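Box S2. Input/output pair 1.
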Amino acid sequence: MKLPLLPPLVALCVGTIAFAESPRSAAPELAPLVQHVLSHRDGQAPWSVDFDALGGDRTRLPIGVFDSGIGGLTVMEAILSLDAFNNQTLQPGADGVPDFAGERFIYFGDQANMPYGNYPRKDRELFLRELIVKDAVFLLGRRYHAGGELKSDKPPVKTIVIACNTATAFGIEDIRAALRAWQLELPVIGVVEAGARAVNESLPATGRAGTIAVLATVGTCDSGAYPRAIGRAGGLAGKPLPAIIQQGSVGLAGALEGNPAFVSAALKGADRNPAYAGPAVANEAAPLDPSLVPVYGFDSGGLLGDAANPATWQLNSAANYARYEVATLLEKYRRAGGGAPISTLVLGCTHYPIARTELAAALRRLRDYAAPDGARPYRDLIGEAIEFVNPAEFTAKELFRELARGRLRAARESGAAPVLERAFVSVPNARWNGARLNADGTFDTDYKYGRVPGAPVAEDVLCVPLREAGAVLNSLSGLAPALPRVWSALGRQ
């Protein structure tokens, strides 16, 4: 059973439809990659695994964390700082000791192929799913490039954390299916499942629940992963299912990262950003509605263009992106007939916890917003107190539980802190036959979205230490204040 879709970027999910789907099996198109790994068990070929290195006691191996880019480092930060359990009894309750004391971590961001959310809309979902399995293969394998040379001294990982909502939505079942084919028993934790369980904890056991709002990327929302996962978790717990609304954001993550396609610190006032791809009157993917200018409540200091002409406006601050997303979500909920007030906002992208203050302020403003005629169109749609769900924190908790359940926790030396040992990102391989790159070294758009699955030896990207990717480090510097432990660890690598 399917309900009619609401206007673009929002879907309302109620009842059993949220969890009726069964887990997806691996696609036949991914079989060449799965077989390739089985056929190269020494780990010497591109995208292969050294199975011998995964034998024996795995407790000493590091934990792998990956994302489509650097946004997953917010999950890494949550993991490094978690103190929610007693390390001796393994029971809930802080004990003043980091929960992952003694553990080592390896991070990978597939920066060359990001953003993942664009592939499904360009009819490349199967290729995206292959990319996601390759992310796992990199963490399980030993190969990488550094200083222009091939290296093979990276340890494999004992657990995989998918610190990316889109990758979890489209690829977690494929990774699990591949591991079964390779006869490797490793826990795989995804942020969507952890976030859904967090939402379930907040749902009342009886009675009517408030509406759950999910703010995520367009790709994650299109996948329906959060409504399914929330419905599944609530259904298993026997709780009444809430209504779920979604808002797919085009540019908030990019704005937080300082991506020049969404914000430019060098521009102001009447200036225009020629690379701009964010919300605008003429942007069908993220339309800015001139009739809603008072509702948006943009800060003029974070706008480019003619102040008197909304048709020229370009958002130029993370705060204005937050106001746009919240206003768009609430207006479409209102136009759809509304319902129970929003009680919970799921931060369904790894960047969004950084904008929590701005999102909370936008919600408060709209709850109190009065139209010129005195009407308050959003007051009854927003609860007095909104609970924010950050899947990163719950992913960290889920990781602790899985390590304890599988007896995979590292032996903790006295005072040993968790360590982000190595961080890698992918970069386009200019020497790969057929690869087409832009002047700035990124993939040509037609090439990027023209690829298909089924070429497991393709090495059109190289996985390199993050410290060698200057452009990525520049983007990451804007997130540094929100990532003190991660930033400190990167400085030591």
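Box S3. Input/output pair 2.
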Amino acid sequence: GRAEHRTLFDLNTDPPSFFVSGDRVRFVPVDALPELVGAEPNRARAAASSRVSAVVEDGGLLTTIQDLGRFGYQRYGVPVAGAMDATALRAANQLVGNDPGAAALECTVDGPRLRFEETAVVAIAGADLAAVVERSDLGSWRVPPWSSFLVRPGNTLRFEGRRTGARTYIAFAGGIDVPVVLGSRSTYLTGGFGGYEGRPLRAGDRLGAGPIGRRVAPGSRLAAPPAPFEALLRVILGPQQDHFTDEAIETLAGATYTVGAASDRMGYRLEGPMLRHAGPKEIVSDGMVLGAIQVPPNGLPIVMMADRATTGGYPKIATVTSADIAQLAQLVPGDRVRFAPVALDEARAQSMARP
């Protein structure tokens, strides 16, 4: 047939991928490719914010815009992304009257410095990074953890340093207003899309807020969960526990692991006793879920997190229950992890009871 030029992946279309699993492809040589016409592939169409709420003076170590994630596109190779600690994101949004999944700022270990240009109700939940509001007329004010507060034009929000946890969430009343990409405002860093131009925040970025729905008075507080330095994570064995020795299963249930320095939003790499395979150390790639514990040939487990790949080819010995992912997301390298296998029915009950 006639050779035809196609854009194979385009964020401006739904679905974004021209091919899906099972399609057949043939390649033919051509002398030249036609010019692309229209929107640039892999770049979301810009959407002007209704108003500018804050200007970024310092982006911190790693500050991104996240909501609850981008669902329904894993079959096209698009990861879910979203908040690492969905519980803290929901709490921050609750404190300012937003929908639970409204976009907010996820700050990692060292928070940003934000100068506000309009009056706004803001909330912080998650790790305690020692938030402070600088007010030229009233001086510095230390922000209580897991609380909402009022900022006025000229106020600056900054962070003095990590005390506990790894990730905190800053929610604005109305939510952070950035373009929706494939149903979500979440930043996917590896792919370079979503959030604020697909990247972490940096000095000079201007953040807008969406329309305010349910108005709430500032000063609300929620009880903060205890900050773990050692997390006990409940897991469901499988789906490939038969790829491991009985000794490996016993080790998983009894050993203590340490969060490795290479841990990130894609996965937490753990250091400790090896989990020995009983057969092939690689499998035909299959779907990846949040909390899946992959074990590569070196025997050291990797817990898959928000930016995980959509498929993986290492056997998965167990899966962390969704109710316990928030604990893991708040650990930093050097913190400890233990696993406790539970029955599927118990895990479902825990998930339903999750805030």
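Caption for Box S3: Residues 31 and 155 are 59 Å apart (CA to CA). The radius of gyration is 22 Å.
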